[in-house]
Amino acid sequence: MLVRPSSKLVLQPSSKLRNQQSSVEMEAFLTHVCKTRTLLTLILCIWVPMEVMAQTGNATVSSKRPSSLNIGALFTFDSAIGRSVGPAILAAIEEVNSDSSVLEGTKLNIIFHDTNCSGFLGTVEALQLIENDVVAAIGPQSSGIAHVISHVVNELHVPLLSFGATDPSLAALQYPYFVRTTQSDYFQMYAIADMVEYFGWREVIAIFVDDDCGRNGISVLGDALAKKRSKIAYKAAFSPGAPLSDINDLLVGVNLMESRVYIVHVNPDSGLSVFSVAKDLGMMTSGYVWIATDWLPTNLDSLVPPDPDKMNLLQGVVALRHHSPDTDLKKSFASKWSKLKHEGSSGFNSYALYAYDSVWLAARALDVFLNEGGTVSFSSDPKLKDTNRSALHLASLRIFDGGQRYLQTLLKMNFTGVSGQLQFDLEKNLIHPAYDVLNIGGTGFRKIGYWSNSTGLSTTEPETLYGKLSNTSIRTPHLYSVIWPGETIATPRGWVFPNNGKPLRIAVPERVSYKDFVSKDKSPPGVRGYCIDVFEAAINLLPYPVPRTYMLYGGGKRNPQYNDLVSQVALNNFDAAVGDVTITTNRTRMVDFTQPYMESGLVVVVPVKQVKSNPWAFLKPFTIEMWMVTGAFFLFVGVVVWILEHRINQEFRGSPRQQLMTIFWLVCSTSLRPLICLRLSDSYSHKVSFWKEKCPNSLIDGPRCCLGAACLLNHLVM
Fold first, then answer.
1. φ, ψ for residue 651, nearest 5 deg
2. Cβ proximity of 550 and 504 under 8 Å
3. Which residues lie below 8 Å from residue 66, measured CB to CB, with a gap of 6+?
4. Which residues are registered as beta bridge partners of 113?
């Protein structure tokens, strides 16, 4: 800034006095200018820091690293997860503040709020937490609370680092400030679908708590099973906090159904009640399959030593647990746990590892954020300016101005924590999701394999396979043997005929002919025949009972139309049909056929019994009456020939005995007619002279002897 003096100085060199006055005035002028510039410089030096530290509206800005920053922790203190998470978060805060390489000169403060296993109280506690100008919130562990709080943090730009909300729907673009630092149930459900396919089951029953996490997780399971050509036969849901009587009624109904493969997706604190009721109902015996999600290992890992009574309820159960590599960091954390645990928690679970890493994620991201010139400032939300008269004090909720930039920094972080590598993909999921497959038996459980989204089911640790196989289709899924409920290693079939199910409706054609195949019978089961015997023999080979009812098809006055019978099966009016039903192309388009148990074509069905040989067996093809008619016809031919020939043919003359012998000879020669006539036809030109010599007085020309006449007469008669 330039300041001009108010007086103007004019120099006149012609006068000495004036020159002296000018020198004095010049000195005064220069002194005034120096004082003015000094004052302006002092004002400027004071004004610049004030400008930096000034408050613009209600925003607070700091040009230097803050001496302390607040982050919040939101979870249920008295829960299987909370009892492990609390000490882990405190340990992480202590280590961050003692590590000079992270947030140097800035202390990280943690503010705990208890959600008390309540969606309403959890929401209120979350609002009170954000009033403390936190730059990030660790939690919540409940997916239901996470859905509500995500709308709040979206408005206030406060990242939400959840170590326990596994609901797959929270990954939606609707919740940009929700960052999941654990694995999503999306991958867990696909792991279960791979297990169902591996053991060859086609239907399962899902037992779950009817809340956001339960419903959305089971919905993903249905989609995953559909890709494996399997399905959820029934969804058995119960309300959060349901009494044992409701769970008992639910399992009684489930036990009457066909499927024996149960997927249990509940919360760790009340899930054991499901197995307690199942044990009382006899549903933990041979033939049943129980698969639990990560909630069960979460509960058991918190019990050191394990409770024998609880373990007795879970014999043969297969469960999934979040996989974390056995790194030095994890071993160091485990060695420190005895100093970290507090009353009510004697062991740590996988959620403690994720909570510990969440604190370090927030701290490392804050360090990068501040190093890159980010500032921590909060401003009032203009949308809440009209709520000052409300007793809720919503105006105290302020926007984190650097929240958007801090969120991007969080999503770009990449480091190794106690739970493994912490890095996010484009959908904000942790990379390399993996689970341990556990089989509970005795007083503990054994690891029978692993699952990851890149390697599938395997007995090799996933981290050793990453990068080795780019295509999981070339890998054959494999798990170690499983000891199922009932202490059997044979894989259960996974289904039975339901106790309340309807028997199979077997249609049987009511024939009026060929009743040896199928026919009506007065005695049970109401039908009999060869086809029924074959069907019953096949049923008896099955290792399980098949209730069935035979239903006659047709009026009994004529054979039914088999095309109509096949159509009735296709229309589900019958479950199957047993009978002499021919397999045709059109019929195979409507229904499925078994393999034929009789060859098609012409066959002869004869009784199987010992028959003595008889020299007169050649007579059996014709009846006695037929033979008599045949003999009479031959005699008639001989008499006719004799009448025509005996007057002019010397061979037919003589004594009566001789003439009778000639007639019988003609009868015998007639039986050889086809051969003789054929020979006569073939050698006619060579035999004409012979016939004329033998029969010079025959009635006809050509071959007209007795044999020729017999052949001609036979042709005329036959």
1. -65, -25
2. no
3. 106, 376
4. 74
pTM of the shown model: 0.68
Q: Is the pLDDT of residue 503 over 90?
A: no
Helix (H) or strand (E) holding 400: strand 398-400
What angle (nearest 5°) sits at the alpha carbon of residue 88, between those of residues 85 and 89? 85
**Host H or E run for residue 399:** strand 398-400
Cis peptide before 615 (omega within 30 of 0): no
CA dihedral 563, 567, 569, 571 (to 10 degrees): -170
Contact 155, 396 (CB under 8 A): no
Relative orientation angle of helices 328-340 and 350-371, to the nearest 10 degrees: 110
483 Cβ contact list (under 8 Å, min separation 6) = 316, 439, 441, 489
The whole-number pLDDT of residue 36 equals: 52
Cis peptide before 305 (omega within 30 of 0): yes
Angstrom distance (rounded) from CA 645 to CA 649: 5
Reference 230, options 219, 222, 238; nearest CA is 222
pLDDT class of 673 with cuts at 50, 70, 90: low
What is the Cα–Cα distance from 438 to 448, expressed in whole angstroms? 6
Q: What are the pLDDT digits (tens) for 259-300?
A: 999 999 999 988 899 999 999 999 999 999 999 999 999 999
Total Cβ atoms within 10 A of residue 258 = 16
User: d(Cα 150, Cα 160) in Å, to the nearest integer?
Assistant: 7
pLDDT in tens, 607-636: 777 667 777 777 778 888 888 888 888 888
Place of tokens 């106790």: 499
What amino acid is encoded at 208 in this protein? F
- Name the residue type at position 26: M
In sequence order, the 6+-apart residues with CB closer than 8 A to the CB of 606 are none
The whole-chain average pLDDT of the chain stands at 82
508 Cβ neighbours under 8 A, 6+ residues apart? 518, 527, 532, 550, 551, 552, 553, 577, 578, 579
Q: Whose CA is closest to 230, among 266, 185, 195, 274?
A: 195
Render 56-97 in DSSP notation, one character per residue: BTTB---SS--SEEEEEEEE-SSSTTHHHHHHHHHHHHHHHH
